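Re: the pair you flagged

First of the two:
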Amino acid sequence: MQRLGPRARLVSAVVLVLPLLCFGVLPWARGQGDLVSNTTTVLYWGSATWLPLHCVLWSSLAYSQQGEDQESGRRASLFGLNLAAFASVPGGSLAAVFALLLFGAPLQTDREVTLLFSLFLGTSLFVPLLSTARMPTESLATAMVRTALGVRCPWSDPLDEARTAAAWGAVLGTWLGAFVLPLDHDRPYQVWPVPCMAGALLGLVIAALWLLASGICAGDKSSRMQSDGGVADADKSQ
């Protein structure tokens, strides 16, 4: 099983927390309000800040984690990985629009915020998937299913662990946030897509914490195994 190293795990966690900073902290610090009081402006400026950083950071992570291609013996260029990441934004956003429409998103009455939220959700899912020297669709799908069933996943790419955390955090956060929408309380935070966006941001933060916690647990387990192995070797030498 290939797992992320401590430094790459920390960087991956920072990338997952980055949307909260761009859509939550920075707009508030600039006096632009928050998602509840000024939804459209925050989504515009948050996307302009977060999207390029998201693409570049995931591409850099993929570049640092990739191995040589077994057939050609070559490594993908950082430019090529960035190009794939940015090129995945339109297609990912379009896929997110169709998915949200299937679940009843209001495209006619709230077209602007629906498209902006689709941009965020599609980019969150597809950029990590396509920021790689190979197409990990099958391995990533298998990893997500195994994670959902609680089965230990043999990661085929170290970065697949972070990709899976990002995918589950965004999707489950959006889905859970949607439960607030039909409540008949007429509160500002119930306006589309505020609860779904807030749920996705919270889901990504939880995914980042899980990524760090799993790394700490794996490190402790590895240390115990090395310690037990050292004791066993010492017993054999005696």
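Second of the two:
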Amino acid sequence: KQWYQRRVAITAGVSVFAEECRAYIDRLMPLFYMNLEDNIPSVRQGAAIAISNIVRAYLSPLSNDVVAKLSELLDAVDGQEDDSTLYSDLSKKPAVFGVAMADDPAHTNQVMYSCGSLAPKMGRGGKALGAGGCSASHHFKRPSQPWERTDGAVRLFMELSDVNDTKSDLLPMVRKISSATRKRNFEHHKHLLETIYKCIPMIFRRLTKIKIKPFINDFFDGLFYGLKSDNNLLKAASVECLQSLSLLLGPNILKGRIEMTDYNMMLYVQDAFPETIDM
């Protein structure tokens, strides 16, 4: 439970104690950035909220550093290798957050593990650090994957899109997000796509329709991929994103854009929400 408590702490701390935290920002920011790249999605989300609260509280020049870091992390997925095993490369070095059991094809149809049965690998016995397994073994960690860093960046992008001082800096980076939707060489790309298409509706609304119109079509290929996916979470996120775009642009305008991009995809769109776009 320690990771949950720390997530709550970093989310609330700066927004509640802005002046008290001011003197410690230089020490806090590396920790927030580390959490933004964490392998637990809710920790990445908590860090994104915390960083956006910091930008609101202190604005420039700190916001310039955050935008630069955001740009760097959005490009991280470009370096993602095909093997994106979720929980590989475990380390016993001190960890802030982490997981300690793999969830990838290498463990499919193998012996099933319960919390207690993990204890030997995780230092069971006596008063050893992390003895007992499960959340008590917070000393286990693994390096974050490049796609997870980009995932955290997308979450931060969404939070910063609600900060007036950063909106102009974010617009040029929208294409970095659309580019990330085309990175599908690694096993867990659907997790990243799900995050993107959950965040896009809010990002587009906050950046305003007029300013995001030039970028919308760039996201269609990934959306269509999501509509055809056998991953229910990605499919649901894609449907909801298209529904939001229909409300933002108008159903007929969205229909025209989709037809110009790939007319065959109208069948998938109609199946997804026939009440929204009338064929």
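Residues 40 and 98 are 7 Å apart (CA to CA).

-B.
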